[in-house]
Design brief:
Growth Hormone, Chain: A; globular
């Protein structure tokens, strides 16, 4: 009788455990927000100095190549670490060893990046960036795989929403600092001779803070989540979740092969993901330079812009689960991509007719708010859609597929954009047009996804899921 009740009651998300798992994502986005906000400008300055270039746009192809090389390393390493963690079996779990080692080494190296820049050492900067990214990839794939490991399939969009909220809070920390530690003021105070940039602490504080918080969150995760014990405790719910999968015909065999229809749908999702990350990473990689060199505005304004986009993303993560429960993941992602396409259309048109005047345009704040909300609907559902296709024994492997697609895009897009800027008439002004073209392709591709159910198990959703009590 008790088993019958247990098997028919709605699955409930364990809020406390999900927030703690989200600490890993907090550290990931905290680091990458600092990285994206500073490293491309570091490279721009040192390449200009090295090649004695008068225009920053002349060296953006080199910046693009360097920003892509770390992603190429990730492209190789993330699937490897994902599959290794699938096959790992230790007393502290399969994911935790990779999370701890990767986090601690990455946190140790990260603060030395601004030191290398401060002393105009381009070689040291490149080496430190490469090493930091390599160890970041060691923990990123296993850390992301930890959520679906410990969450039944129907609850993963809701859990992913909570985890993304944690991540965006992490990303907001250095962004808020960027409002006060203004990079444009730091770069503008000196003649760029070795050791004579502005006050080192202006750029060192965000990197140091990121490293400290990465270590703290990793330790909280380790001492709070006993991976093997939790998996055993929720074994029945995980088995029920497999039966309630949104994707049809998913085998639980360890060596299962996808059906032809599922393989086609998975490939389309990964291609669409590739294109929206082409747009997303193109914006994040070059937005600081767009503000600094095209708008000729304070980078502090761009920090405010990032915060606005992040806040609207949090709203999207919070209510995304409710939308999914009504129309399913496929159509929720389609709505998010549609909103993003619309925001880029407006940005492209307005930037064409309104010339830069040395201030940060107010309309970009609104565009990033809409884009932030739209892409939150995309991100909260896309990863759960990918791991929906696999048995529980292959979560690390399919997590690797998801990040292979995103990292491949992040490897290609800096080079593509930087190379386009060598074409006469194509410069930072065309950044929104580039993003628009990429997202439009992604939007169109997503309509071709088949074999995904619209409705699933009755589960707690959206804000209700975030606010529910644990059992």
């Amino acid at each position: 009788m008790d088993n019958s009740i247990a098997n028919t009651s709605p699955l409930k998300l364990n809020k406390k455990r999900t927030y703690i798992i989200g600490l890993a994502f907090f550290g990931i986005l905290l680091m990458w927000q600092v990285y994206d906000s500073y490293v491309s400008s570091f490279l721009s300055e040192l390449f200009q100095k090295t090649f004695q270039s008068s225009s920053p746009e002349d060296v953006q192809y080199l910046v693009g190549v360097m920003m892509a090389l770390d992603n190429v390393a990730a492209l190789v390493l993330m699937p490897i670490f994902g599959r290794l963690s699938d096959k790992t079996n230790t007393k502290i779990g399969k994911r935790m060893p990779f999370i701890l080692i990767g986090t601690f080494v990455c946190a140790l190296l990260f603060p030395f990046i601004p030191v290398a820049f401060h002393h105009s050492n381009l070689v040291a900067l490149i080496i430190l960036v490469a090493m930091t990214v390599a160890f970041a990839m060691m923990y990123r794939s296993p850390a992301v795989a930890l959520m679906p490991d410990l969450t039944p399939k129907p609850l993963r969009s809701k859990a992913n929403g909570i985890i993304n909220i944690c991540g965006y809070i992490g990303g907001a920390v250095p962004t808020v600092l960027g409002m006060f530690l203004v990079l444009s003021e730091y770069l503008g105070k000196t003649d760029k001779k070795p050791g004579q940039f502005g006050n080192l602490w202006v750029i060192e504080i965000p990197f140091l803070l990121a490293s400290v918080l990465m270590v703290v969150t990793a330790l909280i995760l380790f001492f709070s989540i006993k991976e093997n014990k939790v998996k055993e405790e929720i074994k029945e719910d995980l088995e029920r979740g497999e039966k309630l999968s949104e994707v049809e015909n998913v085998s639980q065999d360890t060596n299962a092969v996808l059906s032809k229809e599922n393989k086609r749908s998975l490939m389309i999702i990964l291609i669409a993901e590739f294109m929206w990350f082409m747009a997303d990473n193109g914006i994040s990689t070059f937005m600081t330079n767009y503000t600094l060199y095209h708008l000729k505005a304070s980078t502090g304004s761009n920090s405010i812009n990032t915060i606005i986009g992040g806040l609207c993303s949090v709203i999207g993560f919070a209510i995304g689960g409710f939308i999914v429960s009504k129309i399913g993941r496929k159509w929720t992602v389609s709505i998010g991509l549609g909103l993003t396409v619309g925001s880029y259309v407006v940005w492209t048109l307005l930037s064409t007719f309104i010339a830069p005047n040395g201030t940060f345009p107010f309309y970009i704040f609104i565009i990033f708010a809409i884009k932030g909300f739209g892409m939150a609907l995309v991100h909260v559902n896309s990863f759960p859609m990918v791991v929906e296709f696999c048995p529980s024994s292959q979560i690390g492997r399919f997590t690797g597929y998801y990040y292979t697609s995103s990292m491949l895009a992040q490897s290609v897009t800096p080079i593509a954009l930087g190379s386009l800027m060598l074409i006469p008439g194509f410069g930072f002004a065309q950044l929104p047009l580039y993003a628009l073209c990429c997202v439009a392709i992604s939007f169109g591709a997503f309509f071709l996804v088949k074999g995904v159910k619209a409705k699933k198990e009755n589960v707690k959703t959206g804000l209700e899921a975030i606010g529910e009590d644990d059992d």
